[in-house]
UniProtKB/TrEMBL annotation:
Protein's recorded name: Ferredoxin
Classification via SUPFAM superfamilies: 4Fe-4S ferredoxins (SSF54862)
GO molecular function terms attached to this record: 3 iron, 4 sulfur cluster binding; 4 iron, 4 sulfur cluster binding; electron transfer activity; metal ion binding
Keyword check for Transport: yes
The organism of origin for this protein: Chelatococcus asaccharovorans
Record key words, sorted: 3Fe-4S, 4Fe-4S, Electron transport, Iron, Iron-sulfur, Metal-binding, Repeat, Transport
Entries under InterPro entries matching the protein: 4Fe4S_Fe-S-bd (IPR017896), 4Fe4S_Fe_S_CS (IPR017900), 7Fe_ferredoxin (IPR000813), Fd_C (IPR022569), FdxA (IPR054829), RnfB_subfamily (IPR050294)
Superkingdom to which the source organism belongs: Bacteria
Claim: Metal-binding is one of the keywords in the record: yes
Cofactor(s) in the UniProt record: [3Fe-4S] cluster; [4Fe-4S] cluster
């Protein structure tokens, strides 16, 4: 199994998660992060660190499409290990529904 980043990360992108991952398996897009499923060791420490509650174990039902999105973009987006500045409107975006359809960007972030 692995953990996956899901919808509510989009445009919240708090990045607290990257600071605690022991294997540095987060990858940065323009407005969200993903986890590389082959690198994640399932330790679970990132899950409670996310203020947006966007990180879930892939054992939860209904996350197949999110697992694929994480796997696909982890191949091309740059690695990120240090927390940067979250979007200015992160709090306002927390909990907005259907962010994937409305706001997802396939563009890479800057990484570190
Ligand atoms: Fe990293 Fe552990 Fe989270 Fe996987 S579960 S992404 S290894 S902190
Ligand atoms: Fe996203 Fe939560 Fe990390 S909002 S960047 S998964 S701390």
């Amino acid at each position: 199994m692995t953990y996956v980043v899901t919808d509510n990360c989009i445009r919240c992108k708090y990045m607290d998660c990257v600071e605690v991952c022991p294997v540095d398996c987060f990858y940065e897009g323009e407005n969200m992060l993903v986890i590389h499923p082959d690198e994640c060791i399932d330790c679970g420490v990132c899950e409670p660190e996310c203020p947006a509650e966007a990180i879930k174990p892939d054992t939860e039902p209904g996350l197949e499409s999110w697992l694929k999105l994480n796997a696909d973009y982890a191949k091309t987006w740059p690695n990120i290990t240090q927390k940067g500045e979250p979007p200015a409107d992160a709090k306002a975006m927390d909990g907005v529904p259907n962010k994937l359809e409305a706001y997802f960007s396939p563009n890479p972030g800057e990484g570190d």
